[in-house]
Amino acid sequence: MTDKRNQGQNKKQKQLDVFKVNDKGKALTTNQGLKMSEDEFSLKAGERGPTLMEDFHFREKVTHFDHERIPERVVHARGFAAHGEFELYEDMSQYTRAKFLQDTSTKTPVFVRFSTVNGARGSADTVRDARGFATKFYTEEGNYDLVANNIPVFFIQDGIKFPDVVHAFKPEPDNDIPQASTAHDTFWDFVANNQESAHMIMWIMSDRAIPRSFRMMEGFGVHTFRLINEEGQAHFVKFHWKPKLGVHSLVWDEAHKLAGIDPDFHRNDLWNAIENGQYPEFELGFQIIKEEDEFNMEFDILDATKIWPEEVVPVKIIGKMTLNRNVDNFFSETEQVAFHPGHVVPGIDFTNDPLLQGRLFSYIDTQLIRLGGPNFHEIPINRPVVPFHNNQRDGYHRQTINVGKDNYHRNSLAGNTPAPVSPAEGGYEHYQEKVEGRKIRARSESFTDHFSQATLFWNSMSPAEKKHITDAFSFELGKVKSKSVKQQSVDMFANVDLELAKTIAKRIGVNPPTSGGSNVTASSPALSQQNTIFIPDTRRVAVILTKGFHGPEVKYVLDQLEGANLFIDIISEHQGKVSGSNGISIDANQTFQTAKSVQYDAVYIANASQTNREFNKDAVYFIDEAFRHYKPIGATHGGIPALTINKLDGKQGVIIGKDNMRKFSDEFINAIALHRFWDRKIV
C-alpha cells in the first residue's frame, strides 16, 4: 500500500526531475551547446575598439537577459508556493466520481500558490488584502485546480464587473499611488456605489485580511460547484481548507512595521517551516447541499457574496494536504504555474454563479498573454502526470513533437484517433442541467440582499475583533480625500450596524447617520477567530540572553520550548557563543540590529546585560512593543528586572519564573498557544 500511496507523488517528482539542470562543475556553453572560452569580455575591434555585431555569445546572453521577465499577473502578482501531497480520509464516491476523492490508498501530488491580490510583485507580504490559496492537484485523470481565497466571499456578483473592482482597488491611474492598498478614493467610491461589496468589505476590514502566516489561514473555493457521482446524481458543494494550526492574524501596527522590516515575512515563514520539517497541514472540507434543497436557504446559494453558515451547513472534513517541499526555482515553478477554475476532472462541475462563469473565461485568457501562447500546459510545473493527446498543434513555445500527418477529427488515416471516450471509460461529461429562459442582461432578485450577511459577520465577532474592524475602517476611510466618498461609505455601512457607522463617522469627520441599522440578530461562531484552534506549534520565540545567564535553568526552558515544536532565535549583544553559569554556553544568532519584536510571536527574557546600557535600552523597547501587540512575555532570573523597568510584571499574559522552571515552561508555552491577550490594558 505504501508504494501505491507514494506512486503519484513520485511520478510528478520524476517528471519535474527530467527538466532540472545543475550547472555546478559544468563547462560554460551557449544555449546551442557550444563551449565558450570567454565570458567576461565582448568581442571588440582592438582592446579599446567598438564591440562587433558578430559576437553571437554577447547577443544571445544579453537578449535572453532582456527577456527574462514575463508580464506579472494583473491580480495575485505577489505569490509564494510549495509542493505537497493530498491524502483522502474517506471514500467520497457517494457524491463524486472523481477518482482522487475515492481511493484512500493514493496520495495525490499538489502544488499550492499563496498570494496577495492587490499588490505588484515587489509589494510587501503583510498588507491588508485578501489572499489567494490556489491548489493544483496532479490527479490520474488530469489536473484539477481549486482556485481559492482566504475569504469565502467576493466583492461582486457578476464576472462582467471584475475589471471595475480591480481598476478601483489598484493604484489610482493618475499617479500610480498607493501601492498594495485600498485606502484611497477610487476604491471606496466603488464600494459606496456598488453595495454588493458590503459583506466582502467586512472581511477585508477584519483580522482575516492580515494573516499571521500562510500556514494559519483558511482557504475557500468562494463559488458553489457541483459534485456528480457515477449515477449522475448532483450535489451542490463549497470547498474549504482548514489549517491544522488554527486561524491567526497580525495586529495592524505589526503588519505596517513588518512591511518595512521584513516585506517577505510570509514567504520566509513558509519557506523556513518547510526547510525545518514543520510541514504545514490543511484539511479539506466540503459543505454539501442536496440539489432538491437549492432554494431552501434564506439567500441564493449561487451568490458569491454569501456564505453558507457552518452551523446551518456543516463542513465535512474529507482529507488532508501536507506541504513538504519547497520549490527548486521560483520563476520556473511559482511564477510560471497557471491555475484555472475550468481545470476540472470527472465528478466536479460548475453552477450558474455568474462570477464563476466569468472566471471560466478570464483565467484562460490571462494565461495566454502572460505565458506567451496556448502551450503553457507544457511548462513542467503545469504538465499533468498523465499523457495528453489531441489535435491541437503548433503555437508559441511548443515542446511536443507530434508525429504523423493526421491532426484533425474525424479521420480515417489514424482510425479516427485520438478519439473521445465514454463517461464509463473516464470521459468528462457535463452535468445535464435543464436551462431555459429569455436572453437578458439582469440580476436575479435573489441576489439583491447585500447587508444581512455583512451584519451576520459583525454579530459574530468578539469585542477585540470588532475594535479591529472599526479601527480598519477609520484608517482606510481616513485616507480618503473626498468628503463625499467618506459620507457615502459611512451611510452605506449604517445598513450593517448603525453604531459602527456612527463611530467611523466621528473619527473621519463626516455626519453620523441618523437612520439605518439591521434586524439581523443571528451570529455564526465559526466566523470568529476567537473560536479557532490554539496550539503553540511552530510559533517563533525571541529569547533575550546576555553573558552570565543562569545556565541550567535557562537551558531547561529552551529545551522545553524546542520540545513544544517552537522556533527559537537567541538575541544577544553579539552573534556567536554566549557564556552562562555552570560552564553552559548558547549560540546567539540575532542582535537587536537584525531582529525586531514584530517578527516573533512571543518573548522570553532570560538575562539582561549588567553593563551594556544601549543593549538594555533596545531590550526595553523590544519588550514594550511586544506587550503593546498583546503577545505573551516570559522572564526568569536575570530577565525579571527588565519587566520591572517596563512595569509589566503582574500584567495579563506576562509569565514570571523564579524557582520552578517546569511550571514556568508549561505556563509560558500555554500562553504562546493563546496567541494574543486582548484584554490586556495598554497605557
Strand and helix layout:
Layout: H1 2-17, H2 56-66, E1 79-88, E2 107-116, E3 131-139, E4 142-149, H3 162-169, H4 185-193, H5 198-204, E5 219-220, E6 225-228, E7 234-243, H6 252-261, H7 265-275, E8 281-290, E9 316-326, H8 330-335, E10 348-349, H9 354-370, H10 452-460, H11 463-478, H12 483-493, H13 498-508, E11 540-544, H14 551-563, E12 567-571, E13 576-579, E14 585-588, E15 602-607, H15 613-628, E16 633-638, H16 640-646, E17 654-657, H17 661-673
Notable traits:
single chain; 683 residues; alpha+beta; Catalase HpII,  Chain A, domain 1; Hemocyanin, N-terminal domain; Rossmann fold; ten-stranded antiparallel β-sheet; five-stranded parallel β-sheet; 28% helix; 16% strand; globular
Could you walk me through the main structural features you see in this protein, from its secondary elements to its overall organization?
- It is a single chain.
- With 683 residues, the chain is α+β, with helices and mostly antiparallel strands.
- It folds into 3 domains: 79-158 and 195-382, Catalase core domain (Catalase HpII,  Chain A, domain 1); 458-528, Up-down Bundle (Hemocyanin, N-terminal domain), CATH 1.20.1370; 534-673, Class I glutamine amidotransferase (GATase) domain (Rossmann fold).
- The protein is built from 17 helices and 17 strands.
- Strands 1, 2, 3, 4, 5, 6, 7, 8, 9 and 10 form a 10-stranded antiparallel sheet that branches.
- Strand 16 (633-638), helix 16 (640-646) and strand 17 (654-657) form a beta-alpha-beta unit.
- The longest helix is centred in the middle third of the chain and has 17 residues, at 354-370.
